Amino acid sequence: AILGPPEVNITSCPNCINVTIKLPTSHVRDGGKLLSLIDIYEELDYNITLKSLDGEHKRPRQKTTEEAFSTVIEDLYPSKNYCVSVEVSASLNRHSIPSSWKCVTADLEARQGYYEVAVAGAVCVSLLIAAVLKGVHAAGFILLKISFPQTLV
Questions:
Q1: I need a surface site. Which of 20, 31, 50, 129 has the fewest CB within 10 A?
Q2: Number of domains into which the chain is organized
Q3: Mean pLDDT across 29-48
Q4: How far is residue 105's CA from residue 39's CA, in Å, rounded to a whole number?
Q5: Both 72 and 20 in a single domain?
Q6: C-alpha distances in angstroms, 141 versus 125, 126, 132, 133?
Q7: Residue 10: band (very low, low, confident or very high) from pLDDT cuts 50, 70, 90
Q8: CA distance linking residue 140 with residue 9, whole number of Å
Q9: Based on the domain organization, do 11 and 37 belong to the same domain?
């Protein structure tokens, strides 16, 4: 039997891409129940091939015992386009079909997004504190004018 192709989705993160992999379904049944590849092989190998303008780079073979999982490819150049293809195989079955290529641009924008969220949060907190102080002052709990005792007049 030929394994694959797996279902692959990728999203960008700062200087990296997050690869989500869902193993292909098997066609093996046991008592009417469709078995997963993990049920059959217990452990599978997967290879990720990363492609950019610089060429293709096969990453080291890794193992999984999960039907769906994620992995992060780090140390990438921001604003550069990367494509990923994943191939799944088992120790007893090396016949496989790789996934189609999925492409994304590694982002630097995510860091800027974190900065914008932090600034917006700080502004909101400042406005909230100002509103609370204004409310407390209006209620008369904070007196801004200092009154001296009559004996000093």
A1: 31
A2: 2
A3: 93
A4: 36
A5: yes
A6: 21, 20, 12, 10
A7: very high
A8: 58
A9: yes
